[in-house]
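--- STAGE predict ---
source: upstream dedup step, 1 unique chain passed
mode: sequence only
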Amino acid sequence: MDRDFTARSNHDMGGMMAGTINKDNHNYVLWEKRVDAMMMLLSNDLGILTVDQLRKGIESLPPDAYDKMTYYERWMASIANSLLESGVLTTEELGVKMKEIELKSNKSEKSS
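--- STAGE serialize ---
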């Protein structure tokens, strides 16, 4: 099998036109702050995940997923996949937690 190691991956946009960048300061929403804090905890405090692993996970996302996700959604996908691959989490545990969050979110939307 021949591989072209000179081909760009979807995320590699260096030197290409990519549109304008919004340089305005903005506030992060709570879930984005939590994702950032989770990465700091997993990497700095617990040593479970490295920044290189985070980047590798983000860069290995399929092009359509990468393009549709926001910055912190990519982080979350990479963190979750890394924790699943390393056995820190099981798919069942992740599924239960995601369902719990979905139910909690639906409750808060109904009460709003």
